[in-house]
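Typical record is below.
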Amino acid sequence: MHELDLIHAAAEDVASARVLLRERIAALDAIVQTALDHGIPEEKVDAASEPSLLRDDRELAGGRPLVAA
């Protein structure tokens, strides 16, 4: 039964993370729209929206795509 408790706890953690992620995505979308509404060029908004962790991973991969096509 211990395994079932672990599964349940992990499922609860994932569900909580999904809710938080949805909230953060909505906040980011609102911030991006505000920036665009204030005349900030889309290219700059796109660059600012790219997660630094993704940039770091690409640098580690030598600029190559992280997922094989």
Q: What stands out?
A: The chain has a mean pLDDT of 86. Residues 28 and 48 are 11 Å apart (CA to CA). The two ends are 42 Å apart (CA to CA). Helices lie at 2-37, 42-49, 52-60.
